[in-house]
Amino acid sequence: MTEESDIPVVEVRGGLLGFPELTRFALVKMNNEGLVYRLQSLESEAVNFVVVPAVSFFPTYAPIVDDEVAERFNLAAGADVLVLLIVTLGETFKQSTVNLMAPLLLDPVQQIAEQVIIENEDLSVRAPLLAA
User: Fold this and answer.
1) Which residue positions in the chain have pLDDT lower than 50?
2) Taking the model in full, what pTM does it have?
3) What is the tally of structural domains in the chain?
């Protein structure tokens, strides 16, 4: 797979759940509004995920991460970190869900990301992406 210079290449530290060996991904915009992206592995063409910025669909979602993660992303200093949610596609987009317990934090400046596990029983691993 070739890398295009206008498509950001992101290093996912520790890989994603189920794919710890895959750490280099391209973040490909799937629509002009920037609401839907494809996270495409650069190490395995067969592996890709649909991701959405959490703020676009869940404006009040604010996952609480542990101190080590906060330090790695320099959150105390107010670093600009994007929260992406992995989408499980349904038969229609309206039937699609997102995992609120395992978001992907992305530092767009350093192009480094990490999937974190949020320990909060009130969050769902299958939250509806769109309100009914």
Assistant:
1) 1-4
2) 0.89
3) 1
